[in-house]
UniProtKB/TrEMBL annotation, chain B:
This is Iron ABC transporter. Pfam families: FecCD. It comes from Promicromonospora soli. One of its GO terms (cellular component) is plasma membrane. GO terms for biological process: siderophore-iron import into cell.
Length: 333, 356
């Protein structure tokens, strides 16, 4: 585990270098692999076919992967820090399910498609679900314990998941769209979809950076944090808002991709320790690294068809994650 | 942490005398009797409701094989198998959830969270996909595939989490991760088959009791009839299971094997129930928690978890069957009914000590 500043910087730089490689692979690799010359010509607009492939298909898709991966990685770190629960993850706390149910209801009943409406729907759904989970968990007699938070989140996920199932089962056409969106396909190479998602993602990232210092204090317990001069409630609310913005955006763009938000913070912690700021920075790089790599792998293994990124993420991430949990020494709770 | 036992049994065994007395508290008895009464009422209502509702008097006659032939047929041939199956499936899931939550001492440690249901789902969708892609259909019956998948997932979790102890974080993390991977695999298979098979699979994946009969009910009934008493006896004679390994060892009790057997029972019950009705969402998780909060004791009485699960599935299936214009799978309703109830229970003041 890297402790010193230089070691952390080295880990971060290494991860960034890997991310650049993965992003390049995202542009070059696909049903048809481009040569370096073709890639350059395409990027400069000299080769018509390569230019179309790169500028209209692969570059937007890679950007989408970068954005969604960062959002999910950071959202996972915030969710785990604010609930002090290593199992917290937007997928487990009902936040992604909130976004998903809003999007599915919007497409089934209002006929709303991708783009700005979907982003707004997902954000609103995620915000409502988060608020509901927080209210239910904090009103319990024992107060806002990690276990209550997770239980309320699972209950919300199950409730909203059942609502989605009901909607989807009653309409075969919604089912047809849903089954591809729900596994998180990045294959919507429409720059117009990407644009409305950028402002909420950026706002979430800024909030995350702002609260990361206070979250370190929060890890010591509410009372200690308050004694250290941290506004506990405000920190929680801001971190919650960041989680909503980031995971709502991710859901709108790529469906409820499970697992990235859960796994990436664990991997980052194993590499750079428990400081929230370091974990946050590394997760913002590792998240897109996992997602873009999974996307490239998904394009390669079943050519000319492709495997949805959510599937590959889970299948790639699981063995690594299990290896990590086996390696980490069990600490007494 | 669990508080030390306050009362001791009048037993000659010095170890046993240190353990909490095995006689259930009054509150547990009241909760069990209340839930069983509720179950009886709900099953009578479920037997009466249908395309042509039956009056209580006619229902009584029909249950004894008397009265108009139509009514007898509707009650005994159409509704009864389904009611019995719903109760058996619910009881199996409930006991499975209650046992695993007690043994692993974590409310999230239920078969549906840990990937047992996901394993069964992958196996079933694979069988459907093989048929859909032109392979031989029905080589492996769906219930057998579900059972094998659930047991395989449990074996995989045990293998991958070995050495981490039953109460550490590792088994939960491994289970949730495995569940995510298996769910991803299921969803991948869903995108590979045609839309009608996909929707058929989706109905199975939400959990459904449509078009099931005694053929599906019998294995679950036998399983519950054998495994529930076994769990009751084991859980009751091994009260030390509740406590830390160190405490139990101090009493001279080796909890490892009893815990493993209880978990194996939980897995078998969950896999059996999944094989009959699909991975009915949320029943295992919610039944264990409902039972624990109703009884207000740190361990979860299996009989109460069984009654809670049976009531939940039966209520959900009766609503799904009768109240809605088109039949929804029962799994949708268990989520819609069970989740708000769990949220409500989370708000209530309770007087129990310790958290499993």
């Amino acid at each position: 585990m890297a402790r010193s500043g230089t070691a952390v910087a080295a880990v971060l730089l290494g991860a960034l270098a890997l991310l650049v490689v993965a992003a390049l692979a995202g542009v070059i690799v696909g049903t048809r692999v481009l040569s370096p010359g073709e890639t350059l010509a395409g990027l400069l607009g000299q080769d018509g076919v390569a230019a179309t492939v790169i500028w209209e298909l692969r570059l937007p898709r890679t950007l989408l992967g970068l954005l969604v991966g960062s959002a999910l990685g950071v959202a996972g770190v915030l969710a785990q820090a604010v609930t002090r629960n290593p199992l917290a993850d937007p997928g487990l706390l009902g936040i992604s399910a909130g976004g998903a149910v809003a999007v599915v209801a919007g497409s089934a009943f209002l006929g709303l498609g991708a783009g700005t409406p979907r982003v707004l729907l997902a954000l609103a759904g995620a915000a409502l679900a988060t608020a509901a989970v927080y209210l239910f968990a904090s009103r319990s007699p024992e107060g806002l314990t990690p276990v209550n938070m997770t239980l309320a989140g699972m209950a919300m996920t199950a409730f909203l998941g059942a609502a989605v199932s009901a909607t989807v089962l009653l309409s075969a056409s919604t089912m047809d769209q849903y089954r591809f969106w729900v596994v998180g396909a990045l294959s919507l190479p429409d720059p117009a979809v990407l644009l409305p998602a950028i402002p909420p993602a950026v706002a979430g990232a800024i909030l995350a950076v702002v609260v990361s210092g206070s979250l370190n204090a929060l890890a010591l317990g509410d009372d200690t944090a308050a004694a250290l001069g941290v506004a506990v409630l405000r920190t929680r609310l801001l971190a919650g808002a960041a989680v909503v913005l980031l995971s709502g955006t991710a859901v709108a763009l790529a469906g409820p991709i499970a697992f990235v938000g859960l796994v990436i913070p664990h991997i980052a912690r194993a590499l750079v320790g428990t400081d929230v700021r370091r974990v946050l920075a590394l997760s913002a790089v590792l998240g897109p690294l996992l997602l873009v790599t999974a996307d490239v792998v998904g394009r390669l293994v079943a050519r000319p068809a492709e495997v949805q990124v959510g599937v590959v993420t889970a299948l790639l991430g699981t063995p690594f994650f299990i290896w990590l949990t086996r390696r980490a020494k069990e600490r007494s709770q | 942490m669990i508080a030390a036992p306050t009362r001791t049994a009048r037993s000659r065994n010095p170890v046993r005398s240190l353990l909490p007395r095995p006689r259930p508290r009054r509150r547990v008895v009241v909760a069990v009797l209340g839930t069983l009464l509720l179950l009886a009422v709900v099953s009578a209502v479920a037997l009466s409701l249908g395309d042509e509702p039956t009056t209580p008097a006619a229902l009584w006659e029909a249950l004894h094989g008397r009265g108009p032939e139509n009514t007898v047929y509707a009650v005994l041939e159409v509704r009864q198998p389904r009611v019995v199956l719903a109760m058996a499936v619910g009881a199996a899931f409930g006991v499975a959830g209650g046992l695993s939550q007690s043994v692993l001492r974590n409310p999230l440690a239920s078969p549906d969270v840990l990937g047992i249901s996901a394993g069964a789902s992958v196996a079933v969708v694979s069988v459907i996909a093989i048929g859909s892609l032109g392979g031989p259909i029905g080589v492996v019956p769906i219930p057998v595939a579900a059972l094998a998948g659930g047991l395989a997932a449990a074996g995989l979790i045990a293998l991958l989490a070995r050495g981490g102890g039953l109460r550490g974080r590792r088994i939960l993390l491994v289970g949730i991760a495995l569940s995510a991977a298996l769910t991803a695999l299921t969803q991948f298979l869903l995108t590979r088959i045609d839309v009608y098979d996909a929707q058929r699979s989706a109905a199975w994946l939400t959990g459904s009791l449509n078009a099931r009969g005694w053929g599906e009910a019998t294995p679950v009934l036998v399983g519950v009839a054998v495994l529930l008493p076994a769990a009751l006896v084991l859980a009751h004679t091994n009260r030390a299971l509740l406590f830390d390994d160190g405490v139990a060892a101090g009493w001279g009790v080796r909890p490892g094997r009893a815990r493993a057997v209880l978990l194996l029972i939980a897995v078998c019950l969950a896999a059996l129930a999944t094989s009959a009705a699909g991975p009915v969402a949320f029943v295992a998780l919610v039944s264990g928690q409902v039972a624990r909060r109703l009884a207000a004791v740190p361990d979860i009485p299996p009989i109460l978890a069984a009654a809670a699960g049976a009531s939940l599935v039966l209520v959900a299936d009766t609503i799904a069957r009768t109240a809605l214009p088109s039949q929804l799978p029962v799994g949708v309703l268990t989520g819609l009914v069970g989740a708000p109830y769990l949220l409500y229970l989370l708000q209530r003041r309770r007087s129990t000590r310790g958290t499993p």
